[in-house]
Amino acid sequence: MSKVMNPTKVITGKRTVMSYLNVNEPKTPMGGGTPKYSVSLIIPKSDTATITKIRAAIQAAYEEGQSKLKGNSKFVPALEDLKTPLRDGDKERKGDDAYKGSYFVNANSTTKPGVVDADRNPILDSSELYSGIIGRASINFYAFNSNGNRGIACGLNNIQKLADGTPLGGHSRAEDDFADLDDDDDEDFLS
User: Fold this and answer.
1) Best label site of 10, 43, 64, 191, fewest CB within 10 Å?
2) pLDDT at 137
3) DSSP-assigned states of every residue in 45-80
4) Domains, the chain, ranges and CATH?
5) Confidence at 48, pLDDT banded by 50, 70, 90
């Protein structure tokens, strides 16, 4: 059985950090609209294989979406003149160490993404999913044209958590907060 390759679909490398991870419940975007699941995928610049695949998928989405991008216009805008989802963390997130030396892609979906662990078992405990986990994401790229706002967007398909990472956004894990405490050193708070 052979797999049909989808040129607009990418599976990121295994060192992708998930930021602004929102896969448990959909959230309504600022300004209203349809609630969505979302994530900001932080991809190290050293992961050239993933970056190359993303660039190729963006190009494929551009080519597939020519009629949509053209709209009522007489021509299709050049790809470099459109909004695209691959962003440079060093330029657009200066001062944010999580994005330093990385590219990032914001992906979203109106349908709940599948979320599995390293062994491809579903993750049912929502506390296992936080901004900072490390893993892979299945994403797809597509052209959009909404009220003259044209470009290439990124859809979120599925996530595979491969490892715990440093929690982003100042939130710490309970396991880490209490890991180094010695119960014998505390005063007896009941006396």
Assistant:
1) 191
2) 98
3) TT-HHHHHHHHHHHHHHHHHTHHHHHTTSSSPPPGG
4) 9-177 (2.40.50.140)
5) very high
